[in-house]
Task: inverse folding
């Protein structure tokens, strides 16, 4: 194993989905950037005059509290659509990454190359867990910088042409630290979802047809059987359903009691996602990946 093998393996995975990984983020970015301009065109009144009037009446913007929080909320609003679409694509990727190569028999070609099965499985896992969401987050970051450039132009026009200074907002917005805080969530998110990704890869490797159904139906069957047993035997509660609900759900009790008063809310999401990472769930994911690897080595046929 060498650096060339690793980079080539990642390029192969991206190449197989290059159209989707390029055009889907581009379409989302174009839509988000176009929305403000469409709203401006559809408004009856002059929006610029209202913005100018509001800006002229604001004093001491550099001392306004919550500018960083507002900017962080705006960043989250831009990133959320990209992250949600990335999650959908991740689920699709993991359910097909090992299934398609067996269906079209390309697995024989890839296995003829000097690349081990362990490297192939690892690269597919890293591509789906980290590379795919990173591509969508890069697109979101590009949208943010587009809006920043437009904001810079607007501030320059207001400062030069109308003697309205909004530069204090840029100082308190904490632009780069807020962006870095959002990117920091990528790793705990991947660790939190690791058991799901490993399960989908196992279904993709095991299934002869419809890998998504092979991934979903066993879980549905287990939950239904558990519900029947609980109702029939009049037990106190459901173990598996509660376990899955607790692992994937977020509640207000997980937030700090003084959430509105904390000085730096940028790491709240990081803290919440990190709290969902479980050593037991990670070990389960490792076990599922080991089974996936064993199947890749011993049953790489359609």
Result:
């Amino acid at each position: 194993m060498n650096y060339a093998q690793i980079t080539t393996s990642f390029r192969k995975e991206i190449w197989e989905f290059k159209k989707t990984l390029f055009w889907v983020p581009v379409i989302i970015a174009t839509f988000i950037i176009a929305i403000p301009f469409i709203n401006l065109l559809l408004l009856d009144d002059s929006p610029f005059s209202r913005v100018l009037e509001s800006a002229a009446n604001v004093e001491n913007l550099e001392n306004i509290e919550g500018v960083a929080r507002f900017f962080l909320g705006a960043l989250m609003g831009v990133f959320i659509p990209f992250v949600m679409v990335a999650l959908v694509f991740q689920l699709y990727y993991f359910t097909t990454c090992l299934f398609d190569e067996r269906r079209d028999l390309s697995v024989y070609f890839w296995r003829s190359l000097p690349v081990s099965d362990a490297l192939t499985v690892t690269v597919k896992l890293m591509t789906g867990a980290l590379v795919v969401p990173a591509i969508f987050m890069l697109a979101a970051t590009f949208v943010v910088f587009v809006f920043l450039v437009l904001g810079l132009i607007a501030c320059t026009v207001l400062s030069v042409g109308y003697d309205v200074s909004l530069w204090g907002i840029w100082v308190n917005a904490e632009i780069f630290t807020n962006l870095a805080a959002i990117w920091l969530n990528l790793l705990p998110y991947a660790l939190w979802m690791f058991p799901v990704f490993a399960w989908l890869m196992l279904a993709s490797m095991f299934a002869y047809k419809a890998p998504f159904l092979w991934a979903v139906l066993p879980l549905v069957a287990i939950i239904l059987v558990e519900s029947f047993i609980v109702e029939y035997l009049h037990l106190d509660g459901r173990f598996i359903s509660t376990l899955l609900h607790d692992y994937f759900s977020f509640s207000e009790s997980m937030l700090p009691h003084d959430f509105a008063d904390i000085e730096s809310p940028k790491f709240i999401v990081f803290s919440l996602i990190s709290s969902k990472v479980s050593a037991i769930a990670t070990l389960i994911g490792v076990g599922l990946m080991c089974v996936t690897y064993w199947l890749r080595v011993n049953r790489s046929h359609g």
User: Anything to note?
Assistant: The mean pLDDT is 81. The chain has one domain: 3-298. DSSP finds 14 helices and no strands in the chain. Residues 3-298 form one domain.
